[in-house]
Each structure stands twice: as C-alpha cells, then as structure tokens.
Amino acid sequence: MTDDPIQGPAGARRGLEDDVPPPQPRRWRWGLAFALTGGPLAWFVQLNTNYGLLSQPCYPGPERNIALPDHAQWVWPLTVILYILCLLVALASAFAAWRIYRTARSGDPDGRDSRDCFLGYSGLMLGIGFATIILASLLALLMVPPCAL
Fold first, then answer.
1. CB neighbours (10 Å) of residue 80?
2. Are 19 and 110 in contact (CB under 8 A)?
3. Residue 126's pLDDT is what?
4. What angle do CA 117, 122, 124 make, to 5 degrees?
C-alpha cells in the first residue's frame, strides 16, 4: 500500500472532518457579540448622554454657567445613574467575556488556542478597559461640578 495524502498511511483516514468544530448555537454568538461590544457601547452611551444632558443647562447662551440652574437640578442625579448603569453594562460584558474565555480554554483538551478563546480574551480586555474609563469619568463627575466638566 502506498501513502495517500488524503487517507494517510495504510489506508487509515486522517480525520480532518473531526477537526472542524460544530457550529455554535445562536445564543453563544449573541453572548460573544455582547462580550466584545458591551464595553465600548456602554462608554459610547455614557459619553453621548453626558453631552446631551449637561450641554443645554450648562451652556444656555454664549457664556457657560458655573452651576446647574434651579430648573435643571434633576440632570446631575440622572447623569450619575446613567454612569453607574453604563459601568454595570461594561462590567457585565467583561464577565461574559471571561466566561467565554474560560469555556473555550476548558473545551480545548490539547491546550491550543481557538477563535473563541481569542475573542473571549479580547472582550475581557475591552470590558475591563472601558469599565475603567467609565469609572474614571464617574469619579470626575462626583468630584467636579457638573458644568465644569
């Protein structure tokens, strides 16, 4: 018998069809999408809501107000609540990415890195990074008057 590149030595199958992983369920793909984009989207929402909520009361005309006017005192607590919600979303995406990374590492008995492992680790770094940025912005909002940001 000759060695065939498809069948291998002595006619045995190489098992290439076993190397292809089965397709992931739809909820896995949505979880992976949330893990990768949750942190950046939370920061995007935090940044734009900050601009949208504080720009009108702080800049009603050509001059900037030093403090929030009396009719707009509701803006500061709402902004703090939105910052906290965005921080929780970024942390939830980091946690989801950590679970994906851990699952991908444990599902690979040979110790090789897979696509899901890479994407889980990337989502973990994005979630932690953007959660840190949102937390720093929240601390700045708590320490500095709202119209001084």
1. 14
2. no
3. 95
4. 95
Q: Residue 96: which residues within 8 A CB-CB, separation 6 or more?
A: 31, 34, 35, 38, 123, 127
- Residue carrying structure tokens 């702080």: 58
Cα angle for residues 88, 129, 78 (degrees, 5° grid): 35
Q: Give pLDDT < 50 ranges for the chain.
A: none
Identify the pLDDT of residue 63: 82
User: Across-strand partners of 126?
Assistant: none
pLDDT of residue 14: 54
- Give the model's pLDDT for residue 23: 58
pLDDT of residue 117: 83
12: left (phi over 0), alpha (psi -120 to 50) or beta: beta
Domain boundaries, the chain: 25-148
101/122 Cα distance (integer angstroms):
9
Q: How is residue 3 annotated by DSSP?
A: P
d(CA 90, CA 37): 9
DSSP letter assigned to residue 66: S
Sign of the Cα torsion 116, 119, 122, 127 reads: negative
Could you tell me if 142 and 94 are in contact, meaning their C-beta atoms sit under 8 angstroms apart? no
